[in-house]
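in:
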């Protein structure tokens, strides 16, 4: 079986948010889709290891912010590779309360949903939510997962449903990889010669957080 055939499925880049006893929490999701139009229903897949998963189950509500190509890529690093268990992801992220839920401002659209059903898999829960509020945010082209990988050079979180071991894993060629978000530097300037104030384009940490592998 050639599992790379699954890569031909289309994905976007979204941030799923909810509350944790009054504290806004959220995580990146790349599997979200509209299921029905009347009533409007959206499905989102969340890994059971994600703290946001627990919070969605407890509140029964979630919001989806659709990220755009001009959205700050550090949002993906913050919400995709850090845990709300020990990180305030919203400390440096602008958001507004829409439909009683936290919604990121830096997106192209949002949907606020009430969980009406769910489907359990071994690793993920697919939450089905009836849309109670939705609107446009900024004028921008929705970011696709292909854009995230091919243009931003981003990596896939191990908790994402589309995660697969990199084809370069096991390769002896030296690489510099961010220990926070797994971004792999592949610029024209040798990593050692980058200025000291250079930061990871995905999560914003400095050179000292990269390791040679």
């Amino acid at each position: 079986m050639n599992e790379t055939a699954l890569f031909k499925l289309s994905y976007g880049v979204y941030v799923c948010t909810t509350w944790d006893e009054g504290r806004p929490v959220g995580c990146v999701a790349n599997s979200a889709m509209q299921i029905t139009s009347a009533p409007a229903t959206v499905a989102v897949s969340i890994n059971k290891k994600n703290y946001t998963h627990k919070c969605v189950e407890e509140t029964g509500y979630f919001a989806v912010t659709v990220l755009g190509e001009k959205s700050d890529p550090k949002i993906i690093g913050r919400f995709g590779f850090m845990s709300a268990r020990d990180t305030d992801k919203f400390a440096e992220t602008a958001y507004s309360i829409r439909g009683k839920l936290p919604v990121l401002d830096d997106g192209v659209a949002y949907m606020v949903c009430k969980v009406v059903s769910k489907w359990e898999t071994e690793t993920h829960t697919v939450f089905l939510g009836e849309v109670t509020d939705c609107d446009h945010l900024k004028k921008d082209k929705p970011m696709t997962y292909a854009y995230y990988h091919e243009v931003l050079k981003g990596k896939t979180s191990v908790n994402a449903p589309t995660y697969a071991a990199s084809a370069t894993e096991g390769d002896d060629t030296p690489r510099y990889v961010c220990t926070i978000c797994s971004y792999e530097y592949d610029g024209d300037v040798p990593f050692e010669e980058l200025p000291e104030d250079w930061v990871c384009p995905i999560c914003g940490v400095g050179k000292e957080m990269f390791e040679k592998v």
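note: The CA atoms of residues 54 and 170 lie 34 Å apart.
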